[in-house]
Amino acid sequence: MKDRNYTHSIQIDLNKCIGCSHCMRVCSTQAIRIVEGHALIQPERCIDCGECYRVCPQRAIYARDDGLKSVEKSGSRIALVPSVFIGQFSSEYSATQVLNAVKQLGFDEVFEVEHAVDFIKEVYKTLAVEDLPRPLISSYCPAVVRLIQVKYPSLTHNIVRLKAPHDIAAIYLRKSKKRESTQNSNIYIYYITPCAAKIVAALSPVGEDKSAIDGTINMTEVFNRTSAILIGEKNPGMHKTIANMSPDSVNWSLSGTEKKYFSGRSLAIDGIENVIQFLEKLESGHIKDIDFLEMRACDQGCAGGILCPGNRFLTVERLEQRQKRLEKLKSQNGGEVVNPLMDFSEVLLSYSGVDPVYPRDGLLLDDDIEKALIKLQRINRLQSYLPGFDCGACGAPGCRNLAEDIVKGKATISHCVFVQRIMEKNYKLSPDQAFIVIEKIWGKGRLNKL
Amino acid sequence: MKMQYFIQGGDFSAGGRASTEVKSIIKQFNISPDKIRRIAIALYEAEMNVVAHAFKGKMDVDLRPEYIRVVFLDEGPGIEDIDKAMEEGFSTASDEVRQMGFGAGMGLPNIKKNCDEMLLSSIPGKGTRLEIKVIF
């Protein structure tokens, strides 16, 4: 069974893109090509990790979200705020103050996502003793889940079949509102997202039919609006008086907290290149006897999310301070945490699972093995003509990718500038023809610098 | 399609490179993920056997639409008692090799578990030939 749902958040603004190929070079799934002067993303390979977004010098790459403008004008509107958002602000503002400022942007209620982490910790206790494939891989980071679907198909069944905290928090909100309210007012839930992958996870979740989230809002947009409110704030000093979640739950999205909640040998790996290196070894059978893998596509976990405006290391430090404050509150209250979500843990348990995750066919040469084998032989033959420099002048990130594109009918061997020289020398290609080929890749008039 | 890889005995740091490459190739085919994993594990174990025990060896891959057949041929001490070598936990690996985390005696049984056909022959003092086949 294959997953052929290719919804994406990462988009390229063709009016801004100059086809400079910076994005193509950093893409970890080799999903980008340069065609007619613009970057083009292959939907079957893109995992929305956002590495391209980080390097784009033209700011032509953006994460498509629903935005604050999508927030309904009436009904019960709830903002789901992840803890990393609070970590974007200097410690002169308390968490309560920050959340209150978010509320003023047009919400009736604000709820911190990490409440749901307390629930997930409980689920992990039962997972650890179940007879499941090892190592189990955390389903937390949607970019990692999609990376596995595209590049490591044989590891898809190792992914924990559990919803992400923002989903569980949204389900809790719907269930609790239903229980407490007699009138049937509509509930709208908006997730303030630190990255593009989570936008996609909310739009078209893997292993679920429909997400409990109604819309996503770019964290940078909310940060700007919230900052304006906080600066004009006359009344600082609002603080929580009880710990409303277990203290280290606020660090769940970072690297190293989640793994502590899985007994046995567990590792925390952050940064997409590190994740890829590890999965490669795991898939090849080099690594054995590991029980759990916590993986985050971004360095420093969600603090390094592409839509987080603040510095990731400062964010980590602030969340650590926040954990300490919550610990203090907890001990003042006789070691007790009052998390309203946990009253619903039995209900949530029946909604927290997801269907198995299936691979995507981003790597497949052909559905038919016989045809794929013929294509593979052609690729190998083509590669022997290509220089192996991976210069990118053909509009593909490497020689191997060009060979694959040629076999798939998406490019020709004359796309290679080295092969062009040989062809010109042997009178197989005229300089004018070569020029046309280059313009087809890099755009018309691109070479007219004089 | 046929491919050949050279395996250097004793080069643990490079060990697994050849089998990883084959795994990357078969991932481009419409083969069930479970089979890809089985092939990857069987080839890695076999490659590491050559690295751990032999002086040098080669890995010949024959990839067909219906199956993959891989032959490992090495020059090395060979196997004295093949039946014994197939037992779980039996190993002749040196202490040095064991310290590196290999030589637990699970290699050959693990290969057998992960492939459809396995042929093992050896001439003590000369070398070993291992043939693995997985049907798609």
Task: Give an overview in words.
The complex is a heterodimer of chains A (450) and B (136). With 450 residues, chain A is an alpha/beta fold. In chain A, strands 6-5-8-9 form a four-stranded parallel β-sheet, with helices on both faces. In chain A, helix 4 packs across helix 9, helix 5 packs across helix 7 and helix 13 packs across helix 14. The longest helix of chain A is centred in the last third of the chain and has 21 residues. Chain A is globular. The model of chain A has no long low-confidence stretch (mean pLDDT 92). Chain B has one domain: Histidine kinase-like ATPase, C-terminal domain (Heat Shock Protein 90, 2-Layer Sandwich). Chain B contains five helices and five strands, in the order E-H-H-E-E-H-H-H-E-E. Chain B is globular, with a radius of gyration of 14 Å. The model of chain B has no long low-confidence stretch (mean pLDDT 89). At the A-B interface, helix 10 and helix 13 of A face helix 1 and helix 2 of B.
Brief summary:
By secondary structure, chain A is an alpha/beta fold. Helices cover 37% and strands 10% of the residues of chain A. Chain A is globular.
